[in-house]
Automatic annotation (TrEMBL):
Regions crossing the membrane: 6-25, 61-84, 90-115
Keyword flag Transmembrane helix: yes
Protein name: DUF1360 domain-containing protein
Pfam families the record matches: DUF1360
Keywords carried by this UniProt record: Membrane, Transmembrane, Transmembrane helix
Length: 123
C-alpha cells in the first residue's frame, strides 16, 4: 500500500463524511432512500398518532444509518482513491471541500445561536 500523507488522509475523511451525510440526510438524495422506507403509525400514551418512516429492509437501514453508510462510503472513497485515482480524485476533492464547509457551518451556526440565546437572556 502506498504512503498517504496526513493532508490526503484528512481530505479522504472529509470526503467520506460528506458522502455519508449526502446519502443519509440530504433532501436531494431522498429519492434514493424513499423506495426502501415505509410509514409506521404509532399511538403514544396521550393518544396522539405519530407517523414515522422506518426502513423496509436491511438495505433501508443501510441508507438511513449514519454509522452503516459511513463504513460503505469510506470503502468507496478509499478504494476509489487507491484503484481509480484519475476518476475519483476530482470527486473526492469536491466532497472534501463540501465536508469541511459543512463542519465550519455547523460551528458558525451553533455560535450564532448561542450569541442570540445569550442576548435574549439579558433582556
Amino acid at each position: 500500500m502506498q504512503h498517504i500523507s496526513w493532508l490526503t488522509f484528512t481530505i479522504l475523511i472529509l470526503a467520506s463524511y460528506r458522502l455519508t451525510h449526502l446519502i443519509v440526510f440530504d433532501k436531494i438524495t431522498e429519492f434514493i432512500r424513499k423506495p426502501f422506507m415505509k410509514k409506521k403509525k404509532t399511538i403514544d400514551q396521550q393518544g396522539h398518532t405519530n407517523i414515522e418512516k422506518v426502513p423496509k429492509s436491511n438495505f433501508g437501514y443501510l441508507l438511513n444509518c449514519y454509522w452503516c453508510a459511513g463504513i460503505w462510503c469510506a470503502l468507496i472513497i478509499g478504494l476509489g482513491y487507491l484503484f481509480i485515482p484519475k476518476i475519483s480524485i476530482p470527486f473526492i476533492f469536491i466532497l472534501s471541500i463540501a465536508g469541511a464547509q459543512a463542519i465550519l457551518e455547523t460551528f458558525v451556526g451553533v455560535g450564532t445561536k448561542l450569541i442570540s440565546f445569550l442576548s435574549d437572556l439579558k433582556k
